[in-house]
Amino acid sequence: MRAETDAKLIIIKELSRGQFVSGQALAELLNLSRTAVAKHIKGINTLGLEVFSVKGKGYRLAEPLSLLNEEKIRHLYRHNSTITLHHVIDSTNAHLIRMLRETNEVSDGYTVISECQTHGRGRRGREWASPYGSHVYLSRYYQSQDGLSEAAGLSLALGIAVSNCINQFIEGTAKLKWPNDVLINDKKVAGVLVEAEGQSDGLCHLVIGIGVNINMPNNIEIDQPWTDVKSNTNSNIDRNEFVARLLREIDKIMITFKQNRLETLYSVWNEMNAYEGLLVTLSSGKEQKQGKCLGIDDTGSLMLEDELTKRIFKAYGGELSLRKAR
Length: 326
Ligand code: BTN
Description:
Bound molecules: biotin
Strand order of the largest sheet: 3-4-5-9-8-7-6
Radius of gyration: 21 Å
Largest sheet: 7 strands, mixed
CATH superfamily of the largest domain: Bira Bifunctional Protein, Domain 2
Number of helices: 8
Number of strands: 14
CATH class of the largest domain: Alpha Beta
């Protein structure tokens, strides 16, 4: 299994320049038959990378790939926390949770990044599209003494960190959709998933998962309006630089959040609220609530103002969907 993964990685590296590489050259490099190379290429396609095969020329990726590099990230981040880079993993959140349960290697700030996730987890049981070498999939561990209820507030705070990072790379401005979506021009570019384990009001373990679309390959299908960072800038994006900056933004937000939760951050969130003042519908299962979006309060609850009665309804969870303004 390990050798198979290694062979795929070697092939991906060879193809990452975006030029044709012949099947024969790959076979010689790996000491494998050309049939075995062809099998690995099929496997690479299942990781979300589009590899073209042209008779007489060999294999080529749709576009060049700049791969993540653990050393480079550490150097750019200039901090002393543990960062581990994986190539293929089921889910960085799931991996970190397993590590927590099975080892004692995980301490505050422990970070897992992967080039690809085979079972990337989104909110509400959704799948998070995680093609190889295209985006950022990152999970980080924090310990809390304040119980599980901290998770919801933390994920709101992290949305600010993710937006602040994205804004350093794009021409426009990334905004937030309650509770955890980051949008550019109303299309989702990133999401946050905080998974918590432990006591409701004591020691608990928080695994924060962040996925950011950087450069979506053409062959990926997603069932909601999406965008990526690359489509919102004319510059090339170095994902190593992006990860380092994201980690720094997370650090900054964590300092404020640990000191006073959302006490100051809620107004920052509200300045980034994509739906501020708009008529929205909040759906939770079959239930729906409509009102003017007033942003969040200092507990992280979403406030909707009823159009007729002007009474304010507060929501603690659910799926927000925007209804067209009349
Ligand atoms: C959402 O649905 O908006 C949340 C998406 C969170 C995706 C990230 S990618 C890194 C981490 N590992 C996972 O399996 N999910 C999160």
